[in-house]
Structures are given as structure tokens and as C-alpha cells.
Amino acid sequence: MRNFEYLEPNTVAEACGLLQRYAGEARVYAGGAYLSIVMKQGLLQPKALVNIKKIRELKGLRWEPAEGLILGALVTHHEIETSSLVGEKFPILCELEKEVANIRVRNVGTIGGNIASGEPLTDLAQVFISLDARARVRGPSRERVIPLEELFLDYYQTSLADDEILTQVIIPPLPDRSGIEYIRFSSSSVVDKPCVGVSVRISLDEGRKTCQGARVVLGCVAPIPMRARKAERVLEGKPLRPERVQEAARSAAEECSPTSDLRGSEQYKRAIVLTLVRRAAQCAYERALTS
């Protein structure tokens, strides 16, 4: 690891200014769960680290009736896991956080770092996308809010400019008569990165007989978390009979583009996607029926 400058801004505007000054040669530092590893491995050697941990406006989580759940970029995995507010509004997030890495990582790792790193083997992103989450991004001269799925471009690549910072993740209230399920599968141990992660959200019509809206989001089986849009169209506007759920699961398995690696072959991962989508859709449907 080569020498670098260590900078501690007190505001988002100051942090963006420092990133702009270093023109792509600086990196944002928060929990360091990802950044410290790639720096030690020599894969990334920035001239400066911009430590944003002292910026108060990036901390905390709150509920706004009009916008929904607002998570500051410095909110840690453990904060989500133990938050009574998150447990009330989106219990699925508390449930999944219990399976993320280990308690040491969850204590320091932040959601902003998790998302902004573009890490392809992760859990949070696909659940956020299935909840129609948005990302608030700040730069030196402007602020923008985009669908979270638009943040991801490729392996470890996002649409964040060199001088931009992810400041918040905004999750709107769930539509009425909705249910969501997330299932992760790891081929080695429960604390390992997932081999496949599937999030399915189902929203029903007023009679609770027809699928009014669906989100099927797949993780770890493409360069970025991806929506299986063909599978969603199979479900939407129709009663959720077992054969239709099975058809959607097959479609999702065909849409994804997994690569063979230590966690399994391409064929193996497609088979896992098929099984998990079917299970998650059925569970999400049952939750929607009782919501």
C-alpha cells in the first residue's frame, strides 16, 4: 500500500470539493469494509482518502410520510438490523441484515459504501431495487435523485462521477396489499458472499386475486443486480397460480447471465435462480394476501 493523503471534511460540499480537486485520484472512505481490502491487495492506490465519517448530514435514518424511509449513507448494516423503525416499516431489511457477513463487518460497514462500491456479490442492492428505492447523489454543483438500479453499470462500476457522493437511499412506502421476500443462497458458509440472491415483491389488486405489480430482482448472477423484467411481465395482470409462478421462475433463470466460478457453474446458478424465484414469489404472494 503506497502513501496517501488523509482528509476529513465536515460537510458534503467540502467532501465533493476535495474529490473534484483530486480529479479521480481520491476515494471516499466510510466504514472501510471494502476499500481497505482492495487497497491492501494493491488493486486500488488512491492519492487521497476522503473520510466522510464526521459528516453529520450523512448519518441517521428517519421516516417521512411523503417520501418513505430515508437512510443516510453512513447508516451501518447493524443499525438497520436493530432499528425498530426499519423493523416496523420494512422488516425484510432487518431479516436480511442478520445474514450479511458477520457482526464485525455489520458494525462498521455502511449502506453507502456497500452500494457505491458496485460490489456484484451483495444482498442489499436487490432488495432496495425491488422496493423501488432511489439514490440521492450530491456533487460540487448539483444534486440528483435517481432510481437505485440506475446507479449500477458493471462490475465495481457505478454512475457516480469522480466528484459525487451517495448521500441517501430513499425507500418509498410499500403499495397496499404487497408482500416481499428475499432469499440468499451461499454454496460454502452462511457468512460467505451469496452465490445467488433473489428478491421478489408482489402487489395485488383490491380483490387480492390478480397480481397488480411485480418486482423480480436477481443478484450475483450478472455484472450488476438486475431486474428480471420478462419474469415480472409473466406475473403482472394475472392470477398467481403455481404454473404461472413456475413460468416466471423459468424466465428469470433464462434472463440472468451467471458466470462459472468457485461458487458454482453457470448451469448450477441458473437452477438455483429458478428454485429461489419460485419460493420467493410464493412467499411474497402469501404475505400480500394478509397485508
Structure explained in plain terms:
The chain is an alpha+beta fold and 291 residues long. It folds into 3 domains: 5-50, Uridine Diphospho-n-acetylenolpyruvylglucosamine Reductase, domain 2, CATH 3.30.43; 61-171, 2-Layer Sandwich (Uridine Diphospho-n-acetylenolpyruvylglucosamine Reductase, domain 3); 178-290, CO dehydrogenase flavoprotein, C-terminal domain (Enolase-like, domain 1, 2-Layer Sandwich). Helix content is 35%, strand content 24%. It has 11 helices and 14 strands. The chain has helices at residues 12-22, 35-40, 77-82, 84-89, 91-97, 103-108, 111-116, 124-130, 229-235, 242-255, 266-290; strands at 5-7, 26-29, 48-51, 61-64, 68-72, 134-138, 143-147, 152-154, 157-158, 165-171, 178-185, 196-204, 211-219, 226-227. A 5-stranded antiparallel sheet has the order 4-5-10-6-7. A 4-stranded antiparallel sheet has the order 11-12-13-14, with helices on both faces. A hairpin with a 6-residue loop joins strand 13 and strand 14. Helix 10 (242-255) packs across helix 11. The longest helix has 25 residues, at 266-290.
Could you tell me the strand content as a percent range? Answer: 15-25%
Low confidence ranges: none
Please give the CATH architecture of the largest domain. 2-Layer Sandwich
CATH superfamily label of the largest domain: CO dehydrogenase flavoprotein, C-terminal domain
Main beta sheet strand tally, sense and closure: 5 strands, antiparallel
Sheet with the most strands: spatial strand order? 4-5-10-6-7
What is the count of structural domains?
A: 3
